[in-house]
Design brief:
CATH architecture of one domain: Alpha-Beta Horseshoe
Mean pLDDT: 89
Strand content: 15-25%
CATH class of one domain: Alpha Beta
Structural class: alpha/beta
Shape: flat
Low-confidence stretches: 23-32, 673-696
CATH topology of one domain: Leucine-rich repeat, LRR (right-handed beta-alpha superhelix)
Number of helices: 8
Distance between the termini: 107 Å
Oligomer: single chain
Length: 696
């Protein structure tokens, strides 16, 4: 009986825990995907994470009006649908009411909802997405609130309302020019767009190949994406000053469009706005436009010149790509960024579109601009992207300014100046800054092609790096035509291939102040050391032939004396803890190395002395002059340990033997005293004593 009661208690506890877990899981799930329940329908919502909700699905049990509320449990409902699917899939009710406050009806929200007959949209709605009500074949009446500013492509396609509209005419929805329905006759000139039209929907006139010209109403505020794309006969258009927004690709593919005026109100030229407008040759951009979007004028092969307003700050990726006739871009006085491929293949462009404010030049920005002859990088420029000036085969001169008090670091992406064959000079005003530039590879440094570096308009033939420089970056002086290089004592690191191709250094060699400090410089590879080409090293004005390094030297870094042909003998003190790879590689005349060690320390690189003494008979002699250190091999260590143990054992045994001996001596001395105490004297009777005496 007792056992059955225990089982029932355990069972009850387990069920309670299980129910608690299920409750927690349910609450968590509802927090992420909640429900709004009504008497005859349920709306599923998703939390947007910002205190707002989106209705994502609906379940209906009766054909009664369904209301999308503006608020639920203190959270605003801002959208109907998430754009991925039909919210009302499988529903058969006929009336939908969207309360004031819901801002968006997303793409596909009511797609192919065949039973929808009545639609009530209220103020506060701002956007109706693409195909939002497409396929609602029973929907006859559509009224769009004034608050709506965007209607997506085919939002009301294949509805009963759309089918009732006449072919060959413009369809309006409230203040929207929704679409031109049907085929447009050739050479159509539209002059009768309703005066109260504020918005032209996305794709409204898309592919209307018969449209020759259009007069837009003065109060127009927005032209949607692709609104006139593919209008291959459109020759001119005047965008009213009232327009404050133009969607991407609005005029893309208008191949006969020759001129356009872009008003300040739109803020920026939209991405691909005039893409493939190959007949465009006259563009006027009002002051107030701040940027040209990606691919905005790409493939506009008729564009010859363009004047940018003072307000222009950014040119997007591929903005003028393949504008092969573009020769000049004027008044680019405040451009801060030139995007990737912005002027790619502008083969007629004669000068770079840069300003004193330019900070960033994107990858391939001026790729294949074969007519550019000079590039001037402003003091504020921070980065030049990979292949930025690739194939600019006629560039002869590059000027890099760094004359401000605040020195801005500068980086060059890989192949930034690849194939700039005519480069003859790089003009700089700050050699210290040049040492710190980050070059992605040899071809990212214009010096690779030019060879000639000019500091303050004077050619640098004897390179002298100031005491302020702690590091010289990779590829910094690649292919430089220097007869001599003088490096500071405080130099700590030289990047990869910094002096690659500096063949003329052989004429004068390399000059340093302190040989001890030279040993500690970190060379990233052999060609980062100017000695690789300079061959002769001079310390404090004296040629380094048989140096004795001081005990201040604790290490000789990799490649430190690489290819130093002046070196014949060197003495290395016992303080040197490490010698790096190829430290003396290529020292062909090095005959002797005296080392204050008995043998090579383990910390030294195995290849520290490779390829040295190759021109000396018998090769380099390495003299280990110090005392040999005992090498503690595994066997030696084991022998020491075993020997130590044996010694300890012997000592312990001796100590124990000594203790035993001492104890014995003590016992022998104390033995008589102990007997007297233990055995009392026997008294002899007088009679016995006298008899003994008699016997005697």
């Amino acid at each position: 009986m007792h056992t059955s009661v225990q089982k029932k208690i355990v069972k009850f506890v387990l069920l309670t825990v299980l129910m608690a877990l299920m409750t927690v899981i349910s609450v968590t799930a509802l927090a992420a995907c909640g429900e709004i329940r009504y008497d005859y329908y349920v709306l599923t919502t998703a939390d947007n994470g910002d205190g707002t909700l989106t209705v994502t699905a609906c379940t209906v049990v009766k054909d009664k009006p369904v209301v999308i509320p503006a608020e639920h449990n203190g959270k605003k409902v801002v959208a109907l649908g998430d754009g991925s699917k039909n919210v009302f899939s499988g529903c058969e009710f006929t009336t939908l009411i969207v309360e004031a406050g819901v801002k968006t009806i997303s793409d596909n929200a009511c797609l192919n909802w065949s039973t929808l007959k009545t639609l009530e949209l209220n103020e506060g709605l701002e956007r109706i997405g693409a195909k939002a009500f497409a396929g609602c074949t029973a929907l006859k009446d559509i009224k769009v609130p004034k608050s709506v500013t965007s209607i997506g492509e085919e939002a009301f396609e294949d509805t009963a309302w759309y089918e009732e509209q006449s072919n060959g005419k413009i369809i309006y929805v409230g203040s929207f020019l929704y679409e031109f329905k049907g085929n447009m006759a050739p050479n159509t000139e539209l002059t009768d767009i309703q005066a109260d039209t504020k918005y032209i929907s996305d794709y409204a006139f898309s592919d209307c190949s018969g449209l020759k010209s259009v007069v837009l109403p003065a109060g127009l505020q927005k032209i949607g994406a692709n609104a006139f794309s593919g209008c291959t006969s459109l020759e001119s258009i005047d965008i009213p000053a009232s327009v404050n927004s133009v969607g991407e690709k609005a005029f893309a593919g208008c191949t006969l469009l020759s001129s356009v005026h872009i008003p300040a109100g739109i803020g920026s030229v939209a991405p691909s706005m005039f893409y493939d407008c190959c007949g465009l040759n006259n563009v006027v951009i009002d002051n107030g436009i701040e940027s040209v979007g990606d691919a905005a004028f790409e493939n506009c092969i008729g564009l010859i010149d363009i004047d940018l307003p003072a307000s222009m700050k950014g040119i997007g990726n591929d903005a003028f790509k393949n504008c092969v006739k573009l020769q000049t871009v004027t008044n680019a006085q405040n451009i801060e960024k030139v995007g990737d491929g912005a002027f790619d293949n502008c083969i007629s462009l004669t000068s770079c579109v840069l300003s004193e404010q330019t900070k960033e030049i994107g990858e391939g920005a001026f790729n294949n601009c074969v007519s550019i002859e000079e590039v001037e990088l402003p003091a504020k420029t921070e980065s030049v992207g990979a292949s930025a000036f690739n194939n600019c085969i006629n560039i002869e001169k590059i000027i890099i300014e760094r004359n401000g008090d605040d020195k801005v670091s500068l980086s060059f992406g890989s192949d930034a100046f690849n194939n700039c064959f005519k480069l003859s000079g790089i003009y700089i005003d700050d050699l210290d800054a040049w040492c710190g530039y980050a070059f992605g590879n040899a071809l990212s440094n214009p010096l690779y092609q030019a060879g000639k570096l000019l500091l303050n308009n004077e050619e640098v033939t004897e390179l002298t790096v100031s005491q302020n420089v702690k590091k010289i970056g990779a590829y910094a002086f690649v292919n430089g035509r220097f007869d001599k290089a003088t490096l500071p004592a405080g130099l700590e690191k030289i990047g990869a291939s910094a002096f690659k191709g500096c063949l003329l250094l052989k004429n004068g060699g390399v000059y340093i102040d302190d040989l001890d400090k030279w040993c500690g410089i970190e060379f990233e590879d052999a060609e980062s050391n100017p000695l690789f080409y300079g061959e002769k090293l001079f310390a404090a004005g004296q040629e380094v032939k048989e140096p004795v390094l001081s005990e201040n030297v604790t290490k000789i870094n990799s490649y430190a004396f690489c290819n130093c042909l002046s070196l014949k003998k060197i003495t290395i003190p016992k303080t040197v803890e490490s010698v790096g790879k190829s430290a003396f590689s290529g020292c062909a005349h090095l005959a002797a190395i005296n080392i204050d060690f008995g043998e090579q320390p383990e910390e030294w690189d195995a290849d520290w002395d490779e390829f040295c003494g190759t021109e000396v008979e018998g090769g380099v002699v390495i003299d280990w002059t110090g005392e040999k250190k005992v090498k503690l091999t595994t066997n030696t260590i084991m022998a020491i340990v075993v020997g130590g143990i044996l010694v300890v054992v012997v000592i312990v045994l001796l100590v124990m033997w000594g203790i035993r001996k001492i104890k014995k001596k003590i016992r022998s001395k104390n033995a008589p005293v102990e007997e007297k105490k233990e055995e009392p004297e026997q008294k002899i009777a007088p009679e016995e004593a006298s008899s003994e005496d008699k016997a005697e």
